[in-house]
C-alpha cells in the first residue's frame, strides 16, 4: 500500500495535523475536556440518587464545534442487580440473571427474574414490567424503560434538545460488574494492541445493559444490548495524537460526505470508532505518526469499504454481532459503497472539500501560506470548550439546588460526605453548599428571641467560605447577611467587589459566553474549578428554611408565587433571582440605609435597565424587587405599572397581586393623610 502512496501525502498529513490542532484538538485541550467530564461524573456520583456516566464524543473529547456532538448519558439504576450466574447467597436487592438461547442474537441478552426468597430463576409467572419469553422464563421487558415514543428516541436513548445546537441523549442502563461471557474471547493481543494493562483494566469495568433489542429479532422487546462503553472510553483515552485525530477526521468525513446521501444511520460514529480499533490491531504502532495521518485515514476507509461490501461490521468486543443489522441494506448499502469508493479514488483531495469546521479552507490556506490568523485559532478552540464548561457548571448548580432542599442535619452530613471524596468535588461543591448552609444556620439564629452569637459566627464563617464557589451567588448571600446585621460598610465592600468582577462575568452558563472570558481562560491556563470560581455567576435561590436571612421582598413571593420557568429540581417553596438584578437591588438597599442619594438612584437606574432586558431570566422575581424599590422611593405610579407588567406575564399564583393590594391600601392612607 505504501508503495502506491502519492508523494504529497506526508506533507499534507503534517499540515492537516496542525489544522486539527487549531480546531480544538490540541493535546492540552483534549485532556482538559476529558478531565472536566470526569469531574462532572464524580459530582453526579455524590449528588444524585442514581449513577450518571457520560460516554460518547463529549466524554472522549472527540468532537469539534462543527461536529455538534450530543452529550450521551447513561443513568444506572443501583436498586437492580444483574448477575451472570445464580448467586450462592440471597440479596435484598432486585436481582436478575443474564440468559440467552439459540434465538438470542449475539451481543444481546435477556434478564430473567430471580425469586427474592430462594434466588431461583422464575418461570411461568407474570409480574409488572415482565413477560414470558419463548422458553417460559419471566424476563424483564426492555421497552418499558424508554419514556419517549419511537419517533422522539435516538437509538435506545431519550433525546432532549437544549437551544439550537446542544442535545442530550439519556439512556437508562443496568450495570454488570463482571466481564460478559459473550466477550470472553476478547483480549488476545495482535501487534501489541491493546496493552496488557488496558486489557486487565477494561475487563474489571464490566459492562452496561441498555434497553434495546435486536432490530430483526421477534423478541426484541425482551432483549437488552451489551454495551462495553467503559472499555471503549478507556481505549479512546489511550489513543495517541495521530490515532485521536484520525478518528475525528473519520467522523468529519462521515458527516460531510456520507450523511447527505445515505442518512445518519447508514454509517455512525460508532462504526468509525470500531474501525479504528481494528485498524490498530492490524498495523504496527510505528505507522501511527503525524506524517502518516492521511494514510491512516485511508486505511480505515478501506476497512469500512470492505465491511460495507460484505454487509458485516463486527463489534470490537463481540465480533459475532453485526452492527450493520437493521441499518445497512438495499440501495443504502449500494450508495454508501459508491461514496467510499469515490473518496478512495480521490487520493486525499476530498480533504480540501471538507466544510466541517472549515477544514478544507483552513488546509488550503495553510498549504498556500503556512500561516493562519492566531485570533481565529483562539476563537475556534474557545468554542470547542464551551459545551464542556457549560455542562460541568450545570451539574454544580443542580447539586446546589438539591442541597438547598434538605434540612439542616442532612446538609451537614452532605458536606461531610463531600469532604471525604475527590479534591475536585471538595473545591467545587463544598464551597457552593457552604453559602446555603450558612444562610440556613443564620436564619435559625435570627428567628430566635435571644440570638446565639457563637452559632451566628459559625454561619458567618460558612458564608465567607461560600464566596469562593462562584462570582456572585455566595457573595450576594453574604451581603444580605451583613445588611441584616446593619453592617453597611462590609455589605458595600462585598457588593463593590462583585461589581468589579463583572468585567468578564458569565451570568448565564447556558448561553454563548463572552469570548474575552474564555480566551482569558486559555491564556491563564485555568482549570475547570478556577474557571467556575472566577467567571461563572449562578442565580441566587432561597428556600423556606432561609426565610429569616433573606430580603422581605422575596418572602411573600416564595409563599404565594408559582413560577412557570423555574427549573425542575427547584423546590415548590423557593425563589430564584437573577444575580445581576439582585446585585443592583442590594446596592440600592445599602445606599438607601446609608443615605447616599446619588448612589441609590444610580443603582435603581441600573436595575431598571437589567430588569427590562429581553433575555432576562426569572423576570417575575426581578419585577417584585424593582416594585419594592420604587415604593421605597415613593414612586407609587411607577411601582403600579411594574406590578401590572408582572401580572400580565403571570396572572395566577403571582405575589404581585398582594403587592398591588398593599399599594392600594397605601394610596388610601395617603389620601386620608392629605384630608
Automatic annotation (TrEMBL):
It comes from Sinanodonta woodiana (Chinese pond mussel). Residues 245-326 form the Mab-21-like HhH/H2TH-like domain. This is Mab-21-like HhH/H2TH-like domain-containing protein. Pfam families: Mab-21_C (PF20266).
Amino acid at each position: 500500500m505504501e508503495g502506491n502512496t502519492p508523494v504529497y501525502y506526508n506533507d499534507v498529513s503534517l499540515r492537516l495535523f496542525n489544522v486539527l490542532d487549531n480546531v480544538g484538538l490540541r493535546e492540552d485541550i483534549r485532556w482538559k475536556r476529558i478531565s472536566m467530564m470526569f469531574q462532572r461524573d464524580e459530582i453526579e456520583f455524590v449528588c444524585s440518587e442514581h449513577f450518571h456516566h457520560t460516554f460518547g464524543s463529549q466524554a472522549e473529547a472527540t468532537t469539534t464545534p462543527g461536529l455538534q456532538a450530543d452529550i450521551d448519558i447513561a443513568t444506572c439504576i443501583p436498586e437492580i442487580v444483574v448477575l451472570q450466574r445464580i448467586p450462592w447467597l440471597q440479596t435484598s436487592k432486585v436481582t436478575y440473571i443474564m440468559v440467552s438461547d439459540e434465538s438470542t442474537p449475539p451481543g444481546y441478552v435477556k434478564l430473567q427474574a430471580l425469586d427474592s426468597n430462594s434466588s431461583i430463576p422464575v418461570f411461568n409467572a407474570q409480574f409488572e414490567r415482565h413477560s414470558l419469553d419463548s422458553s417460559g422464563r419471566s424476563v424483564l421487558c426492555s421497552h418499558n424503560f424508554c419514556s419517549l415514543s419511537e419517533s422522539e428516541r435516538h437509538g435506545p436513548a431519550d433525546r432532549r434538545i437544549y437551544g439550537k445546537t446542544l442535545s442530550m441523549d439519556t439512556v437508562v442502563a443496568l450495570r454488570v460488574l463482571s466481564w460478559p461471557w459473550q466477550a470472553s474471547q476478547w483480549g488476545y493481543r495482535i501487534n501489541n494492541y491493546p496493552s496488557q494493562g488496558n486489557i486487565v483494566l477494561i475487563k474489571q469495568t464490566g459492562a452496561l445493559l441498555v434497553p434495546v433489542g435486536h432490530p430483526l429479532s421477534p423478541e426484541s422487546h425482551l432483549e437488552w444490548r451489551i454495551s462495553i462503553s467503559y472499555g471503549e472510553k478507556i481505549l479512546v483515552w489511550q489513543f495517541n495524537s495521530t490515532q485521536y485525530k484520525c478518528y475525528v477526521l473519520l467522523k468529519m468525513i462521515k458527516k460531510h460526505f456520507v450523511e447527505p446521501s445515505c442518512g445518519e444511520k447508514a454509517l455512525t460514529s460508532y462504526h468509525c470508532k470500531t474501525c479504528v480499533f481494528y485498524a490498530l490491531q492490524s498495523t504496527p504502532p510505528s505507522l501511527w505518526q503525524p506524517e502518516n495521518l492521511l494514510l491512516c485515514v485511508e486505511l480505515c476507509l478501506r476497512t469500512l469499504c470492505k465491511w460495507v461490501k460484505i454487509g458485516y461490521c463486527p463489534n470490537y468486543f463481540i465480533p459475532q454481532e453485526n452492527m450493520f443489522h437493521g441499518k445497512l441494506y438495499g440501495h443504502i448499502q449500494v450508495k454508501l459503497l459508491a461514496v467510499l469508493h469515490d473518496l478512495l479514488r480521490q487520493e486525499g483531495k476530498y480533504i480540501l472539500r471538507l466544510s466541517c469546521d472549515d477544514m478544507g479552507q483552513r488546509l488550503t490556506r495553510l498549504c498556500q501560506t503556512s500561516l493562519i490568523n492566531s485570533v481565529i485559532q483562539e476563537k475556534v478552540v474557545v468554542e470547542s470548550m464551551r459545551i464542556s464548561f457549560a455542562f460541568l457548571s450545570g451539574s454544580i448548580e443542580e447539586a446546589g439546588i438539591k442541597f438547598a432542599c434538605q434540612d439542616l442535619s442532612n446538609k451537614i452530613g452532605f458536606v461531610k460526605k463531600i469532604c471525604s471524596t475527590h479534591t475536585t468535588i471538595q473545591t467545587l461543591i463544598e464551597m457552593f453548599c457552604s453559602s446555603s448552609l450558612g444562610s440556613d444556620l443564620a436564619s435559625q439564629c435570627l428567628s430566635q428571641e435571644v440570638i446565639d452569637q457563637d452559632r451566628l459566627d459559625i454561619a458567618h464563617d460558612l458564608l465567607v467560605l461560600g464566596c469562593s464557589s462562584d462570582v456572585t451567588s455566595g457573595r450576594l448571600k453574604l451581603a444580605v447577611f451583613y445588611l441584616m446585621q446593619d453592617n453597611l460598610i462590609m455589605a458595600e465592600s462585598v457588593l463593590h467587589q462583585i461589581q468589579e468582577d463583572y468585567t468578564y462575568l458569565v451570568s448565564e452558563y447556558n448561553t454563548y459566553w463572552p469570548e474575552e472570558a474564555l480566551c482569558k481562560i486559555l491564556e491563564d491556563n485555568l482549570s475547570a474549578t478556577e474557571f467556575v470560581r472566577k467567571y461563572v455567576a449562578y442565580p441566587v435561590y432561597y428556600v423556606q428554611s432561609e426565610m429569616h436571612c433573606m430580603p422581605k421582598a422575596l418572602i411573600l413571593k416564595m409563599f404565594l408565587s408559582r413560577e412557570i420557568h423555574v427549573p425542575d429540581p427547584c423546590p415548590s417553596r423557593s425563589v430564584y433571582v437573577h444575580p445581576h438584578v439582585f446585585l443592583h437591588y442590594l446596592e440600592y438597599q445599602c445606599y438607601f440605609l446609608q443615605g447616599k442619594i446619588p448612589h441609590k438612584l444610580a443603582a435603581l437606574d441600573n436595575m431598571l435597565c437589567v430588569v427590562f432586558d429581553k433575555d432576562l431570566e426569572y423576570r417575575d422575581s426581578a419585577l417584585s424587587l424593582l416594585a419594592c424599590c420604587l415604593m421605597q422611593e415613593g414612586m407609587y405610579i411607577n411601582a403600579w405599572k411594574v406590578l401590572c407588567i408582572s401580572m400580565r406575564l403571570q396572572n395566577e399564583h403571582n405575589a404581585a397581586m398582594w403587592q398591588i393590594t398593599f399599594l392600594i391600601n397605601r394610596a388610601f392612607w395617603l389620601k386620608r393623610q392629605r384630608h
